[in-house]
UniProtKB/TrEMBL annotation, chain A:
PANTHER family: DIPEPTIDE TRANSPORT ATP-BINDING PROTEIN DPPD, OLIGOPEPTIDE TRANSPORT ATP-BINDING PROTEIN APPD
Identification of the protein by name: ATP-binding cassette domain-containing protein
Phylogenetic placement of the source organism: Bacteria, Pseudomonadati, Pseudomonadota, Alphaproteobacteria, Rhodobacterales
Stated family: Belongs to the ABC transporter superfamily.
One Gene Ontology MF term: ATP binding
Automatic annotation (TrEMBL), chain B:
Membrane topology field: Multi-pass membrane protein
Domain ABC transmembrane type-1, chain residue ranges per copy: 95-304
Record-stated family: Belongs to the binding-protein-dependent transport system permease family.
Protein name: ABC transporter permease subunit
GO biological process terms on file: transmembrane transport
Species per Swiss-Prot/TrEMBL record: Pseudooceanicola pacificus
InterPro entries per the UniProt record, alphabetical: BPD_transp_1_N, MetI-like, MetI-like_sf
């Protein structure tokens, strides 16, 4: 069997000088080139922390990252130091961050910030750099790109800034793109355009995408695989069909039924709150299944025993002791 | 951009007027007869009357103000009551050491404090950071004259690297001049750089936790580049602001330092003028200091546009 493009095994991340706050706990997943993995879960479940670990962007002093394996395209990320990570960032992997309003440097022009992404990695003349920047700005459909290059971030709308972030992430054609809720801050039409854009670029360059989102509607639209995260751990993993049609974990089922009931106009986070209860404290995780006390399907044994991973179908795994089709997850139209 | 500059320039006009009127009124709002105050305790009636005539203190207040503003506009601050010299030439004689000392202190402080503050922020939480924070508290709280005398004791009396006191003018050569002002400048730089370093560290810490710093690292920028290209420009506004606002404190410090090191500058002129109740000189000195501060504030305002593009509209 050949190695998958991205392979993560048993990734744990804790913060604090002594690793007091264990925020990500034993996360494993694989991703093939050209595919999209959606990472879903409610706010605070550790999605961004997981993704940021892949980029090596956590402060080294206060973060403890352990894993059995973390490999990208044959490169062992666990053994990379800051200098090696700096080489990989931008070229091998890039990230689009959650908040486009604050993610661009207010003191530097758009043109400079994009050009920098090029000249950090490639030895091009100034004219060639500019040509690359213009090309990528056109790609992400920024109107009047020549003029925009001399603009400062405050002169751009949120949607434009997010396009600039995407352009910056894609300008060196990374093999892996991590998009951390790239559309949450934007309105629905802009969101649709940006998703479409990501799909187009993925098809053209064969980029693997990790797409972090709250929004299961988006998952259905762009996901190949889905990993569901709860309280720092993965609880279910499978293809987008597995997850939408045959959800086997109580949390996934909860997410889906919460989504089914939402009304247009509600924000994504609001929808997820509809699962009663809240995330447990990381410092004080319950015994047994983390989700048991909120699970509509919990059996008494769920409170005592940590569930094992089970394969409910090929490639579809769940960490639940009562899986099978016990859940009558609402049928969701998957667009494929 | 131009309208920004123009607006700032325009905003200076009322400030200048308020300063001038206040300085003018100084002589008139106090209790007692201004002419008698200037003449001193042992003056005869005739002497007082003569001063009143000469300084036109017998005219109506508004007319005096008008005359005064006219004189100031033509850079005429009157004559010293004490020595009879024009105030303007007294100031010009004394301005060189003070100006050089202020600039020297400023340059020294900026060269010390900004790298120090930035470095401390970069190494936040380490022993080095803590040492720098403690050093800045000490620099800030020890009185200027204590630092001054300590420096004289070590570097002038024991090591003999610098003169104990006195001033060599630029006419005696640049190096001699700088050497004579080095201990005073270091003395003042303690206070000033402690202040600036503290602000630089605090704002740098804030900037380093910003999302756009993470973006820069995510692009593949190395640490030094992140610090210099992405962070430094964003601490410009607060740092320049504190440099500007603490310039007033620096001028205060200059007055004290000049007496510690026996430098014949504006500070000494001011103190002497106050002690001899030489009102025209006091007024002239006040106006000069105020104008310098107004100019510094204007420069600070204008420099915002350099650091923050959002200001330029
Ligand atoms: N640098 C850090 N130090 C300590 N705790 C942190 C740090 N970064 C994140 N956390 C904690 O880790 C948990 C998971 O955070 P994370 O940002 O990964 O959540 P998320 O799933 O991305 O949520 P959201 O959907 O709101 O973005 C949170 O409880 C957060 O407080
Ligand atoms: Mg997040």
């Amino acid at each position: 069997m050949t190695q998958p493009f991205l392979s993560v095994r048993n990734l744990s991340v804790s913060f604090g000088a002594n690793g007091e706050a264990k925020v990500v706990n034993g996360v494993s997943f694989d991703l093939e080139a050209g595919k999209t993995l959606c990472l879903v879960g409610e706010s605070g479940s550790g999605k961004s922390v997981t993704a940021t670990s892949l980029m090596g962007l956590h402060p080294a002093k206060t973060t403890r990252i352990t894993a059995d394996r973390m490999e990208l395209d044959g490169i062992d990320l666990l053994s990379c130091d800051e200098a090696r990570f700096a080489e990989l960032r931008g070229t091998k992997m890039a990230m689009i961050f959650q908040d486009p309003m604050s993610s661009l440097n207010p003191a530097l022009t758009i043109g400079f910030q994009l050009r920098e992404a090029v000249f950090l990695h490639e030895n091009l003349s100034r004219a060639d750099q500019d040509a690359r920047v213009l090309e990528v700005l056109q790609r992400v459909r920024i109107p009047d790109p020549e003029r925009r290059m001399t603009s400062y971030p405050h002169e751009l709308s949120g949607g434009m800034r997010q396009r600039v972030m995407i352009a910056m992430a894609l300008i060196c054609r990374p093999k892996l793109l991590i998009a951390d809720e790239p559309t949450t801050a934007l309105d629905v039409t802009v969101q649709a355009q940006i998703l479409w854009l990501l799909g187009e670029l993925q098809r053209e360059f064969g980029t693997a995408i990790i797409f972090i989102t709250h929004d299961l509607g988006v998952v259905a639209e762009i996901g190949d695989d889905v990993a569901v995260m709860y309280a720092g751990s993965l609880v279910e993993k499978g293809s987008v069909f597995d997850i939408f049609d045959r959800a086997s974990h109580g949390y996934t089922a909860g997410l889906l039924s919460a989504t089914a009931e939402f009304h247009p106009g509600q924000t994504a986070s609001k929808r997820l709150v509809e699962i009663p209860g809240s995330l447990p404290q990381f410092s004080n995780l319950p015994q047994g299944c983390n989700f048991a006390d909120r699970c509509a399907f919990a059996a008494p044994s769920c409170l005592d025993r940590t569930p094992d991973w089970r394969e409910v179908a090929p490639g579809h795994v769940t960490s639940c002791d009562q899986p099978v089709g016990a859940f009558d997850a609402p049928k969701k139209e998957t667009a494929r | 951009m131009n309208s920004f500059v123009f607006k700032r320039l325009l905003s200076v006009v009322p400030v200048v007027l308020v300063v001038l009127v206040t300085v003018f009124l100084l002589l008139h709002i106090g209790p007692g007869d201004p002419a008698a105050m200037i003449a001193g305790e042992n003056a005869t009636r005739e002497q007082i009357e003569e001063i009143r005539q000469r300084l036109m203190l017998d005219r109506p207040l508004l007319e005096q103000l008008w005359l005064y503003l006219g004189n100031v506009a033509s850079l005429n601050f009157g004559e010293s009551v004490y020595s009879g010299f024009p105030v303007m030439s007294l100031i010009l004689q004394r301005v060189e050491p003070t100006a050089i000392l202020a600039i020297y202190t400023m340059v020294l402080s900026i060269l010390i404090s900004i790298p120090m503050g930035v470095w401390a922020a970069w190494r936040a939480g380490t022993t080095l950071d803590r040492a720098l924070v403690i050093a800045s508290v000490i620099g800030f709280s020890v009185p200027v004259f204590v630092i001054g005398y300590a420096l004289v004791e070590i570097f002038a009396l024991r090591l003999r690297w610098f003169p104990v006191q006195g001033y060599k003018s630029l006419a005696d050569g640049f190096l001699a001049c700088i050497r004579s002002l080095t201990l005073p400048a270091i003395t003042l730089a303690f206070l000033f750089s402690a202040l600036v370093a503290r602000i630089a560290r605090a704002t740098m810490l804030e900037v380093l936790s910003e999302d756009y710093i993470r973006t820069a690292r995510a692009k593949g920028a190395r640490n030094r580049r992140v610090l210099i290209v992405h962070a430094l420009k964003n601490i410009g506004v607060p740092v320049v602001t504190v440099i500007g606002t603490s310039f007033a404190a620096l001028l205060g410090g200059v007055v004290i330092t000049e007496s510690v090191f026996n430098i014949p500058g504006m500070g000494r002129l001011t103190v002497d003028a106050i002690l001899t109740r030489d009102y025209p000189v006091v007024q002239g000195v006040l106006i000069s200091f105020s104008f310098v501060l107004i100019a510094i504030n204007l420069l600070v305002d204008l420099s915002y546009a350099l650091f923050d593009p959002r200001v330029r509209q």
